[in-house]
Amino acid sequence: MPTQPLSDAILQEALDIYEQTGDYVSAAKKMGVPKQTGRDRITQARLRGLRPTVRKDAPRVYSRERIGRMHLVVPDCQIKPGVPTDHLEWISNYILEKRPDVIINIGDFADINSLNKYDKGTLRGENRRLKADLRAARNAMNRLMNPIIACKDYKPELHLTMGNHEERLARFANENPEFDQIIGIHMLRYQDWGWNVHPFTKVCSVDGVEYAHYFITGESGRPVTSAAALLRKRHRSAIMGHNQKTDIAFQPTTHQWAIFCGLCALHDEPYLGPQCNFVRRQILVLHEVEEGRFDPMFVSLRFLQKAYS
Fold it and tell me: What pLDDT, on a 0 to 100 scale, did the predictor assign at position 22?
């Protein structure tokens, strides 16, 4: 038995809904039919000479639907006493507007400068105190996370991969066993803000993308030195911090990425000198994340200051 033609009333309704929404996907969803069925109804309406009964210049109701998931990566912040942390509020405001599904803190959020062995016995290493380091890190984390925690209708997935600077606490406890259970990474209390904390060099995989503060190459435990080498080693999409430069590699066949995500700090590091301090300062956003594929977007701290301070 042939399918009965749809009435003008049904086709008129489809045409009006399309005029209001502005796209076939949203119109079909509002009609409660598959996309192709909705498109067919709109086409039939036009063939019958029907016209929308709503004004063309009336405001359209757009349905904004995310494709895949959205990740936001906070690179190395290296917080210590006396450094500016205003950018953490800018990032928090950006997060509350864009609402990424996943937030990744790539590690070295806290610098723990008092346990820096390289500065021991030097003028630069004078007057550093662990208590001050911990206070600075906690105050900075409050500045980043408290507005997000206070938002009752937004609960992103949170992952933090511990960095080598934070690992200074565990290394000190290992070298001074008399302080075991007194000094350690537990002093940072990152879990208090809801972070899923991943141990130093342990890989965290989310939606097919691997994250770590850095990825190891060879048996010596040294970090990978380029994005191209990282892509060759992992054979999957991978994001790391540690190396403060921004570096990108892309596999055109599999659409896998390897990215060194740069720096997320306003201050310069004296040990780097003028040349090495000239790096991109930014956050990294991954759009349409699905099975390790995504569209990367770098958002500079300079832009965040202008738009979200």
Answer: 78
What stretches of 201-264 adopt beta strand conformation (E)? 204-206, 209-212, 216-217, 222-223, 238-240, 246-251, 256-261
| Residue 140 domain flag | yes
State which residues form the domain around 19: 8-47
Is-contact 114 133, C-beta < 8 A? yes
Low-confidence stretches of the chain (pLDDT < 70) are: 1-3, 55-64, 118-127
Residue 52 included in any domain:
no
How many other β-carbons are positioned within 10 Å of the β-carbon of residue 291?
13
Alpha-helical (H) ranges within the chain are: 8-21, 24-31, 35-47, 86-98, 130-150, 167-175, 227-234, 273-276, 301-308
Residue 233 φ/ψ region, left for φ over 0, alpha for ψ in the -120 to 50 degree band, beta for the rest: alpha
Per-residue confidence (pLDDT) for residue 59, from 0 to 100: 60
pLDDT in tens, 109-155: 999 999 987 666 565 556 689 999 999 999 999 999 999 999 999 99
> Do 116 and 249 sit in the same domain of this protein?
yes
Q: Is residue 63 part of a domain?
A: no
Give the type of residue at 253: T
Answer yes or no: are the C-beta atoms of 264 and 77 closer than 8 Å: yes
- Is the same domain home to 100 and 238? yes
Predicted local distance difference test score (pLDDT) of residue 295: 97
